[in-house]
What does this fold into?
Amino acid sequence: MTTRTSVSVAVASAFVGASLLSGTYAMPVANADDPLGPIRSTVNGDRSRTACPAFIYSQVLEDLAQTAVRPGDARGGDLSGYHGKAKLITGYGDPQAQAINEAYKSGAGGLISDCSYTDFGVGFQRNENLETDSVSIVFGTPDKAAAAPPAAAPAPDPILVPTPASRQCPAGSPTPTVGAFETCAPPTNQVSVSVVRGPQWTVNVTNAANIAGKCTFTANGLGGGLSNRSFELAPNGSASFPIGTPLPFVTYHVVTSCHGTFDGKDAEFGHNEQNVSF
It folds into this structure.
């Protein structure tokens, strides 16, 4: 049975389908004008990795699939308009890719490798109020004696580009590898801070991460003395800057926070807190 896994990349008009039939993932080319295109592409691509002949796309089954996910349509789920054996599978989720995954989990994955089914059609509906996509797939085996004339073949489906089942995370991530569409965890606590006392008090900051960042130094306490600073920190670099001398008998809570870009997203890779007094 073919199953699909959820993705964390949210797109409005494109999705990624995962097939376990061959142990690989497939990424259909997005078509913003036709929300059914990615669904057809995924089913056709997964069927091609089985020993079964290619599916025949049925306009009759598409109409039934569309009716099944259309809100308030009393005909939803009625497959009597198809002359033959038919099976409806529906999945819900956001984005569309998750809805397809849920349809696969609900039985579509297994039916794709069932060679007794030769026809299929798909449906799609977006419910903006619930922020949910509905995807339906209807598989059919026509009754040869009463089969209606075949529908015109749809345009060729986009070429499926295989992608790896997992990917390597950038250096420094506590998760060396993740699923192909999962997010790598950023490094944390990579910045050390020391306050050197003397005639001129100095703050020394050292970066152990291979990430460039922007940092803030904030001192909270009564009266004057220490001052807040903003500074930049190079990958595996360091920075030093003078600060005012704390007032006698006053304790300051000092927070240093450094943010940078890791795996395409903002991440706090350094956070240091300590108390400083004269």
Remarks:
- The first helix runs from residue 37 to 48.
- Residues 1-31 have pLDDT under 50 and may be disordered.
- The radius of gyration is 29 Å.
